[in-house]
Amino acid sequence: MSDQRIEDLGDDLAVPRKNGELVFEAPWEGRVFGLAVALSDNQCYAWDAFRDRLVAEIAAAEEHGDTSGYYERWLASFERLLLDTGVVTAEELDARTAEYATGIYDEHEHYETTSDAIASLTRSPHTSQVRNIVWRADGEPINVFRRPGQLFVCGTGCCCGHTERGHAPVPVELYHSEWARRRIRHKVHLSIGGCLGPCALSNVVLLLFAGHEIWFHSVTGDEQVIAIYDYIEAMVRAERYLPPPPTLAPQVFDVFDWPASKPKPRTDGLAYHEPLAVGAPQGSQVASPAAS
């Protein structure tokens, strides 16, 4: 391949070659190389912007004794550029990574993925600031995607949905279909499982959003499920907690005895959560359990 941009990378950034030809040790290396060049060709970003990030990535890797390969550093630079320029969001990137890693599209996918490529990104001080890396017990780095909320539905408890005991059915399919149709999977995760309590109130639903917990009881009709999702979408659009609407007031109740928290207005322009981070202090490095 003859491309002046590639030739101008210089010795320090030179792509691997053999007999003058580009060398890729794995298919993904060729793909990420081609993607970086193609998006520059389509003016999604300036080539110099990618080159600058590659310089920084390689320098940081060498400074910290990183043994990652050339194209792992290329990939980290490419991903960081896509996020910085807004070509993709962190949510879209995680979703596509999960789909590619599994080879399937799963509407219940948690988007907590592990791969050689993602593992290489955890070594980058640049990309780690937009990811939530948790080190699993076996030493594998897992990128746990953060959401502002989660919806828990009691669907298989001791009372909820047991029509043989006189309780109303739980519209499980409607919960799933509305969650998928509204495309809020990256904002609010859906969990349908066992007992949430209290058992005297069947068909219980718990919504966590922006640090608030909202309990609903006796959710027995489709219109109530729709109203709950309308409420969730209103908060997603507002990017903050909102009080339950009057249509859901009869179903709202309290469970815990701590004082209910009240939303505080923010003056820093942020909405329901802080920027995604690894949970480490600014400037600190992510370390594996083996290094501690």
Which helices and strands appear, and what pairs or packs with what?
Elements: H1 4-7, E1 17-18, E2 21-22, H2 27-41, H3 47-63, H4 70-85, H5 90-102, H6 116-121, E3 133-135, E4 141-143, E5 149-154, H7 172-181, E6 188-193, E7 205-209, E8 212-216, H8 222-238, E9 252-253
Helix pairs in contact: 2-4, 3-4, 7-8
In order across it, which strands form the biggest sheet?
A: 6-5-7-8-9
Proportion of helical residues = 25-40%
The helix/strand order is HEEHHHHHEEEHEEEHE
- Contiguous low-pLDDT stretches (5 residues minimum) are 102-129, 265-292
Number of strands: 9
Given this structure, which CATH class of the largest domain is correct?
A: Mainly Alpha
The proportion of residues in beta strands is 5-15%
**What's the mean pLDDT score?**
75
Classification by helices and strands: alpha+beta
CATH architecture descriptor text of the largest domain = Orthogonal Bundle
What is the rounded distance between the termini?
44 Å
| Biggest sheet descriptor | 5 strands, mixed
